[in-house]
Specification:
This is Transcriptional regulator, contains XRE-family HTH domain. By secondary structure, the protein is mainly alpha-helical. The chain is built from eight helices and no strands. The longest helix is centred in the C-terminal third of the chain and has 33 residues.
Length: about 130
């Protein structure tokens, strides 16, 4: 969905007129109409005001996600947690670039080996079943 459609949907869900929304943003009613048909786009300040007014994330307003709620609201509800980096992430970030490349190569090797081992196990299980 595009910005204008999302804005119109939010406005109608909240049962407010373009005029009422225009007052919130301190713009004219025709400006809201132009936002809704994608002829104009709000500046950063009004984008933030819209986000707060409708209690949605800016990413949602821009059509970048289907998740309406701002991240801080999701964290408060416990629906999203921010975990500290794992030991592996900390170690990786401390490595020089050349060693990061070696680290990635080794991780790919381990992944490939695990897939091959899984394939061998499935083959032997099939052979034993026959």
């Amino acid at each position: 969905m595009d910005f204008g459609s999302i804005l119109k949907k939010l406005r109608t869900e909240k049962n407010i007129t373009q005029e009422e929304l225009a007052k919130v943003l301190n713009v004219s009613r025709p400006t809201i109409g132009r936002y809704e048909i994608n002829e104009r786009f709000p500046d950063q300040e009004n984008l933030v005001k819209l986000s707060k007014f409708f209690n949605v994330s800016i990413d949602y307003l821009l059509g970048l996600t289907d998740i309406k709620e701002p991240i801080n609201e999701l964290i408060k509800k416990g629906e999203v947690s921010i975990k500290p980096p794992s030991d592996i992430e900390r170690i990786y970030e401390s490595l020089p670039d050349e060693e990061k490349k070696m680290f990635n190569d080794y991780a790919k090797y381990l992944e490939t080996r695990a897939k091959l081992n899984q394939g061998d196990k499935e083959s032997s299980a099939t052979s034993e079943a026959i």
